[in-house]
Amino acid sequence: MFSFIRKRLELKIIVTVALVIACMIGVYTVIDIRLMRADTIHTSERTLGALASTVKGTVIASMKKRHHELVRNILDAINEPDFIDRVMIYDGFGRPTQGIEKYADDSGLDMSIPPAILKSVALGDVSDIRSQHNSTYITYYSPIENKKECYGCHGKAAKLNGILRIDFSLRELNDLIASRRNRDLVWSAVMIVLLVGMLAVLLRIVVYRPVRELRDAMASTDGGATLKRLFPTGSDELADLKNSFVSMIDHIEKLHQTNLEKEKELARTGEELRFRGELQSMFDAMPDGVLLVDREFTIVQSNPRVFDLLPQLRNADNRIPAAQTVDDTSPYFGLKSAMKNGKIHEHQSALVLPDGRIRHLHSICAPLVKDGEVQSVVEVIRDISERVTTERELAEKTSELRMTNRLLAQLAVTDSLTQLYNRRHFDEVLYKEIKRFNRRKYTSLSLMMIDIDHFKELNDRFGHLAGDSVLREIARVLREGVRETDTIARYGGEEFVIVMPDTHLDGAAYKAEVLRQKVQRQEFPGSTEPVYCTISIGVAAYVTGFPHDLIKTADKALYQAKNGGRNTVVVARRDEVEV
Length: 579
Description:
By secondary structure, this protein is α+β, with helices and mostly antiparallel strands. It has helices at 2-7, 9-64, 69-78, 115-120, 151-154, 171-222, 237-285, 304-309, 333-341, 385-413, 423-438, 455-462, 464-480, 505-521, 547-563, and strands spanning 86-90, 96-101, 126-132, 135-145, 160-169, 289-294, 299-302, 345-352, 358-370, 373-383, 445-452, 487-492, 495-501, 535-541, 569-573, 576-578. The strands form three sheets. Strands 12-13-11-14-15-16 form a six-stranded mixed β-sheet, with helices on both faces. The protein has a five-stranded antiparallel β-sheet with strand order 2-1-5-4-3, with helices on one face. Strands 7-6-10-9-8 form a five-stranded antiparallel β-sheet, sandwiched between helices.
């Protein structure tokens, strides 16, 4: 039967929908009955709680007035409603004292209070649900507390005067649940009838339309009209028929597509032959060498010029060796890169000719892309030997010119005799250092002015060559005795200056004394005998003003050193000069 249902589309739909509806109705009925039962029990507990509070209040009020006979009347009145099955009063230890039973068959119920509930009821109201004799009961326990006004009869020792118990049977709840279940079943039957009717209508739509679609498609195919596209679905009889028809249509379309592709291929072949003819004409007219190679580096087309530029191609069997496509010194290096990356590649190479000459070549490789893939590469090769020679000569001339300019720049700021900076460079350096000092680049700036003592007598006695030698040696001693950041210059004749940035006046004075002592101990070569000489030094620190103010202050200190006996250091401190 199941195999029969699987082959019938409408039966599959009916069975599936019926199962879904049955499951939904079953789940809904179970949930509805459980919720109704829980709500009824909860409502009954609240009702019994309110009733217990009222009964306790009435009983306590009667006991206060010592009307014990009224308690029985109260219990009778409470038992009148239909929802109350039993009302009992226990003492503080759980022993029954008074009670009313409405139904005789309820007498079999357990009248004792469970120990756990007896212990819990001292703290407040307690409810209990239990089943006995095929019936379910809600039992509500409420404590009757021993208050001060009850001490006369019950004493102070007991915490509870008694326990009120009310039993409520759930017979009517079970009847209500059965009624609700029967009603749900009736409605379920009505819903199933309606849904089956709707299903019949849907089946006509779902089954009839595909059949009509298939019939129309077959009719149009038979009449030679345009084929309608059908999509195969399902596994029933209708789907099998539809799938067969779709397979037939797909086969026809494939045959038709194959014919179209062959026609296009023939057209492309003719177009390619025409294109290659035009391309060859263009290659032959170009002054540069041109190669067209495929993915296997086979030469497809070329022009005569390329064999003049690359003589080894004549013996290459119309194929470029793969090793030369990865050699960066080869003119074919760009072919593999353009083939792999699909981008234009430029490359320069040098080719040694059989006669020993070197030919410089510039290559441009451009990929030809077809259907998203690189099919071939065009390489244009140009002889750039003359350009390379010109560029090298130009580079050599440019290098020589730069060296000459550097030499001229050095000569412009250098004293030719001592190889120290000249007066012009000193003026520029002092101006820049004062600007840095004013921008707070450092905290102090000092200047030394140095003069060789009795230099004229030295020239007259030993000759000008010896004097020049002394100037060079003193320049060497000064250069070795200062920092790299200090600037030494020949100020004029036998005078020197030293610019000392970031040097305090005391530090400059100390350095001047060291230089003075070195020169004093230095032995200078003469024509016949050693020459000895001394120097006088004036030291000043920049505070404010212009460069010539600092030079004037240092020169004044030097003047004081010369007048003070020479071979000494004089330090200018602000407006006064100290020796």
